[in-house]
Write a structure and sequence with these properties.
Helix content: 10-25%
Low-confidence stretches: 1-31
Oligomer: single chain
Strand content: 35-45%
CATH architecture of the largest domain: Sandwich
Order of helices and strands: HEEEEEEEEEHEE
Distance between the termini: 65 Å
CATH topology of the largest domain: Immunoglobulin-like
Amino acid sequence: MCSLRSVSGMLMLVLGVTMSAKAGAQATAAGASAPLTLQATCDVSGQMPVLRVRLVNKSDRATSVVVGFQAADGKTRVVDSLDVIAIRPATGADEVYAYVNPKYALTKGVPWIVSIAPGATHDLEVPLRDFVSTMTYNGLDPIVAGGTRLIFEGRAVAKAAPPVWSGKVETKLEPCQ
């Protein structure tokens, strides 16, 4: 019985290590296959602090991606694919700041799809104040923004022509300047 327990314990340990290694490899492979990279800077030199975000197509073919949605007026494009993840100093837990345009927070619309040519970029500029904590509902302070992770999530769209890329890419934000 004792040897069965030790063998069971060893088997559990091996399975745990193997599963962790596979999960890490899958995450790396998924990130490595993303056709896009993300770049961002935080600018506090103007009246309103902003994040300047750049999607870069590093693949050899055009990549279409959902950046947000078009409002009912057909002219306004609303970003809804960005989040900032900060580490709470008090607890060390992640705090997610979702980008929410306050004027269009409760609206929906048709997907805003951008096609990015091979080697080309698509730029976005979003006010830092529109990143809202999902925990505390506070806005993202420029002092907190430095060292956080910015995540762009491309979401799938049913029957989109051309097909859109879905997945996540992220980058680390340097201190605001």
